[in-house]
Automatic annotation (TrEMBL):
The keyword Signal applies. Keywords: Coiled coil, Signal. GO terms for biological process: peptidoglycan turnover. Residues 280-309 are annotated as: Disordered. This is Putative=3D domain protein. Transmembrane segments: none annotated. Residues 90-161 form the Peptidoglycan hydrolase PcsB coiled-coil domain. Residues 280-306 have a biased composition (Low complexity). One of its GO terms (molecular function) is hydrolase activity, hydrolyzing O-glycosyl compounds. It comes from Clostridium chauvoei JF4335. GO terms for cellular component: outer membrane.
Amino acid sequence: MIKKTLLSLTVVALCFNLSYTSVVKALSPETQTIEENKVKYQQLDEGIVSLNTDISKLDGEIAEINAKLEKNNNETTETEVKINLINSQIEEAKKDIDAKQDILNGRLRTMYKSNMTTSMLAYLIDSSNLFEFINRIDSMGRIISLDKQMVTEIKDKQELLIKNANELNEKQEKLKTLRETIEKDLNEVNEKQDKLHSKLDELNSQKAEVASIIEANEEKLISHPLSVVNTDGSTIKQLQDAISTLKSLIPQLNTESVIDKANDGISTGNAKIEEITAANNAANNSNNNDTNSTNNNNNSSENNTNESKKTLTMEATAYTGGTVTAMGFKPVRDPSGISTVSVDPSVIPLGSKVFIPGYGYAIASDTGGDIKGNRIDLYLNSHEECISFGRQSVTVNIVAYPGEW
């Protein structure tokens, strides 16, 4: 199981690296096509999903091994306690055997020196009467019985000592095997953790590389409304349009730094509107004509903003899902803001702002294999909505080209 998982991880990583490297080698924005970008994003997304799946499997296996190691450590501790107990019992048995052996040896030496058999017969014959003779026989029998019992106990102790010694050897062998298993498991865990960290580093590196492309596209996307906000001569209407655009684009952004710039632009724009409004109110008290002139300029700006650069009649379908568009943005459906549509870049340049009656404003930020020529794909939030939409003829008004909004 472990080897299969590691092999699977290695194969996936190698396949992904080969395909990914072939796409990423030429990352210069001026030479890399939008289609190559989208292929790279799709490969990266699939690679991330595959790596995350393998990482999750490794995490599960590591957790199992850690649990096994903990169990083995507990068993090792218990075994060592038992070994210490057996050693203690063996030492006590040795002392007991030695003490009894000393007593028995002393008695045997006494018997040898005094010719115990002759002494015992003399001891019996020396009895003064039959009663004493019987008592002496009984006493001698008890002494012999005690000696015999002592010999038996010594023999039993010796057998117990041998048995405990054998058990100790078995315990030591089991402990050795247990330690070998633990060391093997530890090595496997360390190898898996190394591979896991390596894959994570690789994943983070790939994310950072793609994030730089996404960040550049997002910077370009918000550059026009930010330039309007940062220009001193912008009118209230122009500032309001820029703020509205920034608010609509934020849900599609992935990069935190770009999101922060968009939010800062919104704050700056609102502050400028307050300044211009205050200045206009002050001027209104002394000269109503200036205010009328300003209003006329704003109205003229609004009319120019709403004019279409180009109007197309296109065949529309709908799609859903996905995590990133060809430009690296989040695909969204926002009826009250700016949604996502997929186009043929040769017909509608990517980054253009369009208006579709019944659908609303959208940014042309995605492409598709079937979206060629007079075709457009509208992003919706569910598969059911896409089926319901079907295939329709729609009017597409190009409101602004890239860099104009």
